Amino acid sequence: MERVVLVDENDNEIGTAEKLQAHKDGRLHRAFSIFIFDSRGSLMLQQRAKSKYHSGGLWANTCCSHPRKGEAVEQAAHRRLQEEMGFDTDLKEIASFTYEVKFDNGLWEHEFDHVLLGRYGGSPTVNPDEVDDWKWISLEDLKQDVKDNPGIYAYWLKVALEKVEFSQL
Question: Is residue 63 annotated as part of the catalytic site, yes or no?
């Protein structure tokens, strides 16, 4: 049974909860979102597996997940990047933000989200339990497509695009 780290609004740990229960209850928990860019500045997106308990089939940033109790955010990010996308690369945390959204299935995302950037030029070897598809896209094209087709993108990706300045690459 996977657990998430519950936090307060300042990212101070206040306990743990079973992952699905935290999403049922809308409990604020620690998370991370990884954005991997190639040398041209294109972003690697993943299409979440349709079998995911929420946001299945939606396009999202390269990788996102939750650190385990006692696991540093960057350590967890490297672990999950390898588990989901089949590669690892240097990562740099550039920002964090909190968001909350209720999904149509009654689950909540209420996360203190750490944003990490990295560079990679190869093709991933995706885990089919996590990822249905992937692609490279320019930030310009992504921002336009999010405006034109918001329903095909994960909520947190749209929030991150508004809040994070990616010129720090």
Answer: no
